Amino acid sequence: MGADGLRSLSIFGATGSIGEQTVDLLLRAGGAETHKIVALTGGRNIARLAEMARTLRAEIAVCADASGLAELRDRLAGSGVEAAAGTTAIVEAAERPADWVMSAIVGAAGLEPGFRALRHGATLALANKESLVTAGPLLMAEAARHGARILPVDSEHSAIFQALVGEDIAAVERIILTASGGALRDWPLERLAKATVTEALAHPNWAMGQRITIDSASMFNKALEVIETREFFGVAPDQIEVIIHPESLIHSMVAYRDGAIMAHMGAPDMRHSIGYALNWPDRSHLPVARLDLAQVATLTFRAPDLARYPALRLARQVMARRGLAGAAFNAAKEVALDHFLAGGIGFMDMSGVVEATLEALDADLGHENDAMTLEDVQLVDHLARQRAGKIARRQAGEQ
Ligand code: NAD
Ligand code: MG
């Protein structure tokens, strides 16, 4: 709480899909009248960042790209909002105390701001799943050390978190993550290699940022979420299952040792899990569609075909290796995705690039060690990007 009694908040990645939905909920909850907004950060959309910062009367607005600073200053002139730019400025903004911090930058760039925010004991609403994949043990230990709380925002993890309320984690037999299967789930396997970016972006249920939408089609997103589940809830890898549920109405399930399965249902709208984290431990009214189950009529499920989704197999390898393997996996995945988006490699080549990177780095680094520092994670991230880039360029040259 600030001196004025208002709850203080920061949003990292405010201009993205999760960030915009967080801002939407905040404005509905009274915006600057009822909250003290500390920091808002964005990437290249300076106009939107400045507009939000003015509306929410933020203390500081930071854009990722240093070249955007002049424009940001211009747009904020006379508003009383400070302007800053660059990666270091984003990390510094995370060091400003806030009661509640949304971590919604996409990719490995989201790790350090969230990590820093834990130092002042903030509640960290974690949309950036990459933080747990690359540095789960580090993040959880940092939260424990500073008495900070991490609340999951990924819909599956929010669902699991909610299905665990009042329960003993020791009574959990399995955690069942649901997956929509993404845009290409009904394509024949032989056609997948030729899938284009536009085709992979046509997600059937969820409207999300571009990168996570492609990751849904390849199931790299689910692979990250399996690892995220392992790190956040501390269950063993073989307790985590994935099931394809095309309707995306059950957001995930917890199966207990007495045979009961607790499923979390709702419309596919991220404002549910963002709002749950924002209001926790209370439940407040949220502007999400209500399910009419008679209208829904049927829910369907099927086991994922591992030949279509090598990412799920790779997630198992990463969990077996632990330590810095998650950082290498995520970095290689981000690079492979960049190359797919740029048209250099095919849809099914992405997993090949990631697998070859993991193999190469394993030999070079022996990164099985569970002890890690932020610097270790950043170093492995850097090495994996270099290696994956080389592998992807070689692959592109062969096509
Ligand atoms: P997005 O691409 O829509 O937005 C990302 C935000 O991060 C933007 O504000 C962008 O400007 C900023 N950004 C991008 N690169 C940056 C960098 N290098 N440094 C600083 N800022 C940078 O992404 P999104 O879909 O909102 O996803 C955000 C995070 O939430 C991701 O980790 C994603 O996996 C996770 N997530 C998203 C959804 C969803 O529905 N969109 C669901 C579950 C989890
Ligand atoms: Mg998810």
Structural features:
399 residues; alpha/beta; Rossmann fold; Rna Polymerase Sigma Factor, Chain: A; 3 domains; binds nicotinamide-adenine-dinucleotide; binds magnesium ion
Describe this protein's structure.
With 399 residues, the protein is α/β, with parallel strands linked by helices. It has 3 domains: 146 residues, Rossmann fold; 137 residues, no CATH class; 78 residues, RNA polymerase sigma factor, region 2, helix turn helix motif (Rna Polymerase Sigma Factor, Chain: A). Helix content is 47%, strand content 15%. The protein is built from 17 helices and 11 strands. A 7-stranded parallel sheet has the order 4-3-2-1-5-6-7, with helices on both faces. Helix 2 packs parallel to helix 3, helix 6 packs parallel to helix 11 and helix 15 packs antiparallel against helix 16. It is globular, with a radius of gyration of 21 Å. The model has no long low-confidence stretch (mean pLDDT 95). It binds nicotinamide-adenine-dinucleotide and magnesium ion. Magnesium ion binds next to helix 7.
